[in-house]
Specification:
By secondary structure, the chain is of the alpha/beta class. It has 6 domains: 32 residues, no CATH class; 214 residues, 3-Layer(aba) Sandwich (Rossmann fold); 169 residues, Rossmann fold; 49 residues, Tumor Necrosis Factor Receptor, subunit A, domain 2, CATH 2.10.50.30; 230 residues, Rhopdopsin 7-helix transmembrane proteins, CATH 1.20.1070; 223 residues, no CATH class. Strands 8-7-9-10-11-14-15-16 form an 8-stranded mixed sheet, sandwiched between helices. A 6-stranded mixed sheet has the order 1-3-2-4-5-6, with helices on both faces. Helix 17 packs parallel to helix 19.
Length: 1165
């Protein structure tokens, strides 16, 4: 009420002043607005209307509020539409029967100040009518005031219009003070939807929010992501563009440049605007224009002025729509433009009414004569509104059909009037049920109650569409999409290309025509390809980016983000997500698996075959000589090595993982532990044989001792593997060798691999060391050479395995082949020669091939006294043994036939000859080593000869001072005793030295041997070493000439005389008696028979016979590496057998035969 009083109080004061003055000086309030025409229509209920009958005032005439030229579509047509609609409503017997609607139409000039002025008139008239009704009397008016008989002012029930949003807001601010509802027909501002500010505002058109959404959908459809934006300064343009920008930001569209301008701005303003738009070319070619029609026209004029043709594509709002007056004369610049038009079909009934209007018959419209003159460019002579600018006089017969275009919003104007009528009818039904005409409850009309009934109204519009209001007073959105196209020369027209209805856009792209051939592009950056993301450059808008590809293991999470897949996952084909990578593991069907399995199967078969052969031939020399117990361990390890590939290739499970960890290390450990034990044994044997005197048998040389040693070495590996299994329990896990591969493997750490392999490597190196150390053993020790070759090859395999295993992803197959090749090398190199002998060469599978040696060892003298001789044979001197050494008195001479040679059957040489020397006096410790000479046998003949006799047959070492002659005594026994008398000065106890040569008894054979040949050989030896042995001639008795003995060998002149030989015979001092000669001849025949004519059946007794000489003196002969293959039995140096047998002196002839069979010396093993 305060607001009402503030408005009403000045009016009342003004009216009082006017009434108090004289008639000549009185001025009516209405006279102040005399230039403003008003169109009235009587009725029971008056509805006000604001139409833009004239254009808005130019910028220079805004203060005067002087409107522009008259408008047909937005002005005259809408005025006539209201008259026509009220006529129809009043004639409708259903809608408001017995109630007549009237109108009061005023001109807003599309300007807020003018519209506000006219709105005050609405209120003033309403207040005056209310006062008059209360006073019950009529006021006096001056005679100059025009009087309308029967016309009484009535309050305004509601207002229709105005068309502009900004003007509508100003009017609503005033009307809502007096509770007057307002229904707009084209005001689409978003602000008007706020009911807290504009409670009494309703509209039959949708909000600009929906229009902005429709415009954005068009831009998105053609992927115009980088556009410029222009809007008319005012509520309409600002609210609409704000809505568009907000939606564009949500959708990722960018505004290259945004600007605003007044509709009535000058040319410079439009030119400046256009220059700014051109700065964004060529990227931002699309210009979204949320503008009124006159703003669009100003832009088109500037484009013509600046010569900008075809550079921009305009997207216009409903302010442009399909209005011809906007583009008239500038169609080429607007060609291809796309506009939004409120969906409002033409009202044909209005066309029938409007086109029949004539100047002389249309008296209700006070602006019609002015319009007629403007429309037909003529003047009406004598009319108050005569336009002197036109020369032609109007005839009144002009037709409005010429260049007629119906207002695009005509349907909304009519629907707004119908909405007011339906609201009044609903109100009448509610307040005046059954009453004809207006009841007292509707006198006057309460605007607040009418608003409630308006919001609940719904009806079918003039074009058949449903009209209703939501809670904000807005109507549903329906738009037509128009495209200005070149139809024919000098003719352009708007073409319907689609619709937008309640959020759904439908466009027929085939009907769209742009201002240039092809589709216009308006983007800052091209869209990224699949698998790429947008990287916004610093300082740029979000639509200007650089496309960057995601990594191979990343997918596109959104257009700006790449996200890496987790391990075991990989981007899908569309790069929009991740999918699991198929788990891989070694398949049985793989080529490498097939090769490994076939190789292992063959190895298993060969290993089983070798094992079977070894078991069947376990008692043969070739098996015995190879340490069969260790061989069984090696074969077991080889078998397990061939089993390993099956556990490695199988799909990883807990069981297979346990077997892998156990078998890989254990199989190799079994092989190499046994090989280390065997090679170590050979090395110790050879090391002991290099000593001058073998005084002590090496320890742990028995078969079971070797097995225990190998078992200990294997148990170390087993303990290591079990410990690692406890610390790291085996189980299948997923391995990721690369980001795109997943393998199912066992969880073996580097320690779990390095520790067992490292231990096996230690065994391999140890075995390689011993194999290399024993590489030059004699021929019958050649197993060490095979072992050496095995270890060399194994080292190469495992040295290649380590980098391949740790440097590649083929760990499983690498391990398979490394283990298989290792055991294959061991199987092939160590067992193939033995299999060859057992299967292909059974005649070589005899004891003699594995127990003989090329080495001859001879030791002469007593080790208790230091040797005082300086002869060159002191190089064989051995360290003096400690006191109490039981072997210090026992000296030996040992040699044997080469084991590698096969002698013809019947010509076997004895296997071993030992010469044991005992002396009771202190003597020199002297040693001679003799290597057998090559023997030349010329068949079995009774006359046996020897060739290639070297002078280096035998080394005999004596003291220089020993010069006593040696006398020979023919014994009566088979043994031969050589007595040597010592010098009497200095006096020493009588001593005697006996040399015992043992020969196994053989059956007597008739094989004569020429004594002269024998003596020649012995004499050659004596002559060779006579200078160092002065009294050695005394040892050899000179036989009689009648014994067919060759004359004694004469010493050469250069030899010193202390060693003379008898000229007649070497045995002249002690002539042999005939019985002695017969006995010697008999012994010689026995030797010849044993050596050259031994029968096959006698070979069976040979091992037993030679057993005594081979085993009874272990301290005097080097132990054999193949000792296990020799017949069992042992003795100690003091055993009765050794003393009785070895001390038996051999026949002298027999000794001579022994000495002449060798012609080449050698070093000690």
């Amino acid at each position: 009420m305060i607001g009402v009083l503030l408005v009403l109080f000045p009016a009342l004061l003004l009216e009082t002043e006017v009434l108090s003055r004289s008639a000549g000086r009185r001025v009516l309030l209405s006279a102040a607005s005399s230039p403003r025409s008003v169109a009235r229509m009587d009725g029971d209920v008056i509805i006000g209307a604001l139409f833009s009958v004239h254009h808005q005032p130019p910028a220079e005439k805004v203060p005067e509020r002087k409107c522009g030229e008259i408008r047909e579509q937005y002005g005259i047509q809408r005025v006539e539409a209201m008259f026509h609609t009220l006529d129809k409503i009043n004639a409708d017997p259903v809608l408001l029967p017995n109630i007549t609607l009237g109108s009061e139409i005023r001109d807003s000039c599309w300007h807020s100040s003018v519209a506000l002025e006219q709105s005050i008139e609405f209120i003033r008239d309403s207040l005056i009518s209310i006062r008059d009704d209360k006073d019950g009397s009529s006021r006096c008016v001056s005679d100059s005031q025009p009087q309308h008989q029967g016309r009484v002012k009535k309050p305004i029930a509601g207002v229709i219009g105005p068309g502009s949003s900004s003007v509508a807001i100003q009017v609503q601010n005033l009307l809502q003070l007096f509770d007057i509802p307002q229904i707009a027909y084209s005001a689409t501002s978003i602000d008007l939807s706020d009911k807290t500010l504009y409670k009494y505002f309703l509209r039959v058109v949708p909000s600009d929010t929906l229009q902005a959404r429709a415009m954005l959908d068009i831009v998105k459809r053609y992927n115009w992501t980088y556009v410029s934006a222009v809007h008319t300064e005012g509520n309409y343009g600002e609210s609409g563009m704000e809505a568009f920008k907000e939606l564009a930001a949500q959708e990722g569209l960018c505004i290259a440049h945004s600007d605003k301008i007044y509709s009535n701005a000058g040319e410079k303003s439009f030119d400046r605007l256009l220059r700014k738009l051109r700065e964004r070319l060529p990227k931002a070619r699309v210009v979204v224009c949320f503008c009124e029609g006159m703003t669009v026209r100003g832009i088109l004029i500037a484009m013509r002025r600046l010569g900008v043709l075809g550079e921009f594509l305009l997207i216009g709002s409903d302010g442009w729509a399909d209005r011809d007056e906007v583009i008239e004369g500038y169609e080429p610049e607007a060609n291809g433009g796309i506009t939004i038009k409120l969906q409002s079909p033409e009202v044909l009934s209005f066309d029938d009414y409007y086109l029949k209007l004539r100047l002389d018959t249309n008296t209700r419209n006070p602006w019609f004569p002015e319009f007629w003159q403007h429309r037909f460019q003529c003047r009406i002579p004598g009319h108050p509104l005569e336009n002197p600018n036109f020369q032609k006089n109007c005839t009144g017969n002009e037709s409005l059909e010429e260049n007629y275009v119906q207002d695009s919003k005509m349907g909304f104007v009519i629907n707004a009037i119908y909405a007011m009528a339906h609201g009044l009818q609903n109100m009448h039904h509610s307040l005046c049920p059954g009453h004809v005409g207006l009841c007292d409850a509707m006198k006057p009309i309460d605007g607040s109650k009418l608003l409630e009934f308006l919001l609940k109204s719904s009806f079918i519009g003039v074009s058949g569409e449903e009209v209703w209001f939501d809670e904000k007073g807005d109507a549903p959105g329906r738009y037509d999409i128009m495209n200005l196209q070149y139809i024919e020369p000098n003719r352009y027209d708007y073409v319907l290309i689609g619709t937008w209805h309640e959020g759904v856009l439908n466009i027929d792209d085939d009907r769209v025509q742009m201002n240039k051939s092809g589709m216009v592009r308006s983007v800052c950056s091209e869209p990224c390809w699949k698998g790429q993301i947008k990287v916004i450059r610093k300082g740029e808008v979000s639509c200007c980016w650089i496309c960057t590809a995601c990594k191979e293991n990343e997918f596109v999470q959104d257009e700006f983000t790449c996200k890496a897949c987790e391990l075991g996952w990989w981007p899908n084909a569309d790069l929009t997500g991740c999918e699991p990578i198929p788990v891989k593991y070694l398949q049985w069907s793989n080529i490498e698996s097939i090769v490994a399995v076939v190789f292992s199967c063959l190895g298993i078969l060969v290993t089983m075959f070798v094992t079977l052969i070894f078991v069947l031939y376990r008692d043969t020399p070739v098996v015995k000589s190879s340490s069969r117990e260790l061989c069984y361990i090696i074969l077991a390890g080889i078998f397990l090595g061939y089993i390993c590939p099956f556990t490695l290739i199988a799909k990883p499970t807990t069981t297979s993982c346990y077997l892998q960890r156990l078998l890989v290390g254990l199989s190799s450990a079994m092989c190499y532990s046994a090989l280390v034990t065997k090679t170590n044994r050979i090395a110790r044997i050879l090391a002991g044989s290099k000593k001058k005197i073998c005084t002590r048998k090496p320890r742990f040389m028995s078969a079971w001792a070797q097995v225990v040693i190998a078992s200990i070495l294997i148990s170390v590996q087993l303990t290591l593997v079990v410990t690692l299994i406890i610390l790291e329990p085996p189980m299948p896990i997923l391995s990721y060798p690369s980001i795109k591969e997943v393998y199912l493997i066992c969880n073996t750490s580097n320690l779990g691999v390095v520790a067992p392999v490292g231990y096996n490597g230690l065994l391999i190196m140890s075995c390689t060391y011993y194999a290399f150390k024993t590489r030059n053993v004699p021929a019958n020790f050649n197993e060490a050479k095979y072992i050496a070759f095995t270890m060399y090859t194994t080292c190469i395999i495992w040295l290649a395995f380590v980098p391949i295993y740790f440097g590649s992803n083929y760990k499983i197959i690498t391990t398979c082949f490394a283990v298989s090749l290792s055991v294959t090398v061991a199987l092939g190199c160590m067992f193939t020669p033995k299999m060859y002998i057992i299967i292909a060469k059974p005649e070589r599978n005899v004891r003699s091939a594995f127990t003989t040696s090329d080495v001859v060892r001879m030791h002469v003298g007593d080790g208790k006294a230091p040797c005082k001789s300086n002869t060159f044979l002191n190089i064989f001197r051995r360290k003096k043994p400690g006191a109490g050494n039981p072997n210090s008195n026992g000296k030996s001479v040992s040699w044997s036939e080469p084991g590698g040679r096969q002698v013809p059957k019947g010509q076997h040489m004895w296997h071993r000859l030992s010469v044991h020397v005992k002396s009771q006096e202190a003597g020199c410790n002297q040693t001679a080593v003799i290597k057998p000479l090559t023997k030349s046998y010329h068949g079995q003949s009774k006359s046996l000869t020897f060739s290639d006799i070297s002078s280096k047959t035998l080394y005999n070492v004596v003291e220089e001072q020993e010069s006593e002659p040696i006398r020979f005594t023919q014994p009566g026994s088979p043994s031969m005793v050589v007595h040597r008398r010592m010098a009497t000065t200095p006096p020493l106890p009588a001593t005697a030295e006996e040399t015992h040569l043992f020969l196994p008894e053989q059956p007597p054979k008739s094989l004569p041997l020429q004594p002269r040949s024998l003596m020649e050989q012995l004499q050659g030896v004596v002559n060779k070493f006579a200078p160092g042995i002065p009294d050695f001639n005394a040892v050899l008795p000179a036989p009689s000439l009648g014994n067919s003995v060759r004359p004694p060998y004469q010493a050469p002149p250069q030899q010193p005389p202390p060693l003379p030989l008898q000229e007649a015979t070497a045995f002249s001092e002690e002539p042999a008696s005939p019985p002695a000669e017969e006995a010697e001849s008999e012994k010689l025949k026995l030797i010849q028979g044993y050596v050259y004519e031994k029968n096959p059946e006698d070979e069976e007794d040979e091992p037993a016979t030679s057993k005594l000489t081979l085993e009874d003196s272990p301290a005097l002969t080097p132990p054999s590496p193949f000792r296990d293959s020799v017949a069992s039995g042992s003795s100690v140096p003091s055993s009765p057998v050794s003393e009785s047998v070895l001390c038996t002196p051999p026949d002298m002839t027999y000794a001579s035969v022994i000495l002449r069979d060798y012609k080449q010396s050698s070093s000690t093993l």
